[in-house]
Write a structure and sequence with these properties.
By secondary structure, the protein is mainly beta. The protein has one domain. The protein is built from 1 helix and 4 strands; from the N terminus they run E-E-H-E-E. It has a 4-stranded antiparallel sheet, covered by helices on one side. A hairpin with a 5-residue loop joins strand 1 and strand 2.
């Protein structure tokens, strides 16, 4: 069985209503099925909720960035 690690980093800022919005992101591996939510000016809360519901764990949270990780086990060929 192969092990795959997926990493998602999200940079954000708060808009005038104090709502966090995405200013940048990086995906190593896969962010499926949440990839379509990772857009500039998108909702940090919405994508964070999707990632957590799909096996990602929040590893790090700093002033304006979040780091999520997921480990997947897939059958070897």
């Amino acid at each position: 069985m192969a092990v795959h690690t997926d990493l998602v980093t999200i940079r954000f800022r708060h808009n005038t209503s104090r709502v966090p919005i995405i200013t940048g992101f990086c995906v190593i591996g896969s962010a499926s099925p949440c990839r379509n939510l990772l857009v500039i000016n998108g909702s940090v809360r919405r994508v964070s909720r999707c990632l957590r519901r799909n096996g990602f764990v929040l590893l790090s949270s700093h002033r304006n960035s979040l780091l999520f990780r997921r480990t997947r086990h897939t059958p070897s060929c």
